[in-house]
Design goal:
This protein has seven helices and no strands. It has helices at residues 12-41, 45-53, 76-93, 102-122, 129-145, 156-181, 184-193. The radius of gyration is 24 Å and the shape is elongated.
Length: 194
């Protein structure tokens, strides 16, 4: 086998991992947003923040200094660190569940595990047939369990409708502001035009 440092970016084996690594970082960002809402709903956000901030540093891992909800932007290094420890922090935050929480907590853990496994496997620089099979299986596992976060995810259609509604409200507000500042003559002209 050719050492990674000698492989060319044109080598198909080398290129396989690049989109997967980028995809896994983007999915981890979405996962963090979903987890924050999930923890808030189940009253576990403080527990997660406590676990998150008390992680021990070790070589190659920078200990988080902020609570999850205080991080406004995630950089690549922070996301890679996150992928290494998020499953342990989530598991510690979700225990012990009451009877109503058992199923959603178990599904959340399975979903996080599938995404973390994909993220870690995508970092392999020399994929084998076995690792490529894992890279296909882990997203399937993720998609089969992500329904636990469904209520915290906004579809593209919902985002678009929200954006349109905000634009409409701003236009109406601007129109009302202009109308209130207009002279009586301008208001009469505006009323005729409307």
């Amino acid at each position: 086998a050719i050492p990674n440092r000698l492989k060319s970016h044109t080598d198909p084996e080398y290129r396989v991992g690049i989109p997967n690594r980028l995809r896994s970082l983007g999915m981890l960002k979405h996962l963090m947003d979903w987890l924050a809402s999930f923890f808030k709903k189940h009253g576990r956000l403080t527990q997660f923040d406590s676990c998150w901030q008390t992680l021990s540093p070790y070589p190659g891992f920078t200990r988080p200094t902020k609570a999850l909800r205080q991080v406004s932007q995630w950089q690549g290094k922070e996301m890679r660190n996150l992928g290494r420890v998020i499953l342990a922090a989530v598991a510690a935050s979700l225990g012990p569940p009451n009877a109503a929480q058992r199923r959603p907590f178990a599904m959340a853990l399975r979903c996080v595990r599938a995404l973390v496994d994909f993220h870690l496997m995508a970092q392999y620089h020399s994929p084998t047939q076995e690792t490529l099979e894992y890279l296909e299986r882990y997203p399937a596992d993720f998609h089969s369990t992500k329904e636990v976060f469904q209520e915290f995810r906004a579809s593209k259609k919902t985002v678009q409708q929200t954006t349109q509604a905000i634009q409409q409200l701003r236009a109406e507000q601007q129109h009302a502001t202009q109308a209130s500042q207009a002279t009586p003559t301008k208001r009469r002209r505006q009323a005729v035009q409307d």
